[in-house]
Amino acid sequence: MATYILLTSLTDHGAETIKEHPERIKAVNTEMEAMGMQVRSQFAVLGPFDFVSIVEAPDLKTVLRASTELSSRGSVKVQTLPAIPIDEFIAIFKG
């Protein structure tokens, strides 16, 4: 399984939903797991993003599908980054 970082920003609609139903965040995590991803860590943050999620998925297609599905609802915008463990990164340069 590969690791990905999802940087999520709430839309006005999403912020209203979270204000009224904060437990919706956990429900979305369950939906992501049903799409084939495992949520490893999740943080609410201040700044240009509202949430940072560390997930694992079997492949890029799984993450693309999930990110697109979540974004298509109109409550969040998702930026997805593949994450490479630092030891693997170092190994790339050692040949």
Element string (H = helix, E = strand): EHHEEHEH
Give me the CATH superfamily. Lrp/AsnC effector binding domain/regulation of amino acid metabolism (RAM) domain
The figure for the number of domains is 1
Quaternary state reads: single chain
Mean pLDDT: 95
What would you say this structure looks like, in words?
The chain is an alpha+beta fold. It has a single domain, classed as 2-Layer Sandwich (Alpha-Beta Plaits). Helix content is 44%, strand content 33%. The protein has a 4-stranded antiparallel β-sheet with strand order 2-3-1-4. Strand 2 and strand 3 form a beta hairpin.
What's the arrangement of secondary structure elements?
Elements: E1 2-10, H1 12-20, H2 24-34, E2 38-44, E3 51-57, H3 60-72, E4 76-83, H4 86-94
Antiparallel strand pairs: 1-3, 1-4, 2-3
